[in-house]
Amino acid sequence: MRATRLLLAAMVLGTAAAASQANAQCSSVGAAGNCSTTNTAQVVIPSLVKLGMGATTTSLTAPSADAVDAGTPIDDAGPALSIKSNRSWTLNLKSGRAQYWDFNGGLGTAKSISDLTWSATNGSGYVALSATDALLGSGASATATGTASVYFRTLYTGGLAAASNAPGTYTLPIVFTLSAP
């Protein structure tokens, strides 16, 4: 019985010692006494993107009575965007609201999100903002110092009596998304 206990104790100690040994081993016999093993360092770098925005609010120009009465759109520069990526990238924008601008701090029901148009070129090529991603820009390779510009044109249709032109504060969140597909 004592022999069985000693045998079991030796097996447990042997298993514990084997479990604590490293996966790489070497030994040397003789006068030189040199032994080498190799360890491989590894890191996986994922797709990395960084989007910077010069300002989180764009103050659009307030229209005059003549501009609203005539339905004259007003152009404004949007935020300055900086792009960094370690691979090809796309930059999209969309409205953060499904249908209407917020009005006086609450959900609006009069001014459509399509009253704000946008373009990557100042003065031309404006398209209505929507709740669906639209391509603002892209890069075919990695970039350390990319930039993108967005320009807004606000529409004032329907004249002074239109509900969409009622006095108040209109706000519309615009979502910019940089991705490395």
Walk me through what this model shows.
With 181 residues, the protein is of the alpha+beta class. The protein has a domain at 78-179. 14% of the residues lie in helices and 34% in strands. The chain has two helices and 13 strands; from the N terminus they run αβαββββββββββββ. The strands form four sheets. It has a four-stranded antiparallel sheet, with no helix packed on it. It has a three-stranded antiparallel sheet with strand order 1-3-10, with no helix packed on it. The protein has a three-stranded antiparallel sheet with strand order 9-4-13, with no helix packed on it. The chain is rod-shaped, with a radius of gyration of 32 Å. The model is unreliable at 6-10 and 16-20 (pLDDT under 50).
Q: Note the run of SSEs as H and E.
A: HEHEEEEEEEEEEEE
Biggest sheet statistics: 4 strands, antiparallel
Spatial shape? rod-shaped
Can you give the mean pLDDT? 88
N-end to C-end Cα span? 68 Å
User: Strands across the major sheet, in which order?
Assistant: 2-11-7-8
Helix content: 10-25%
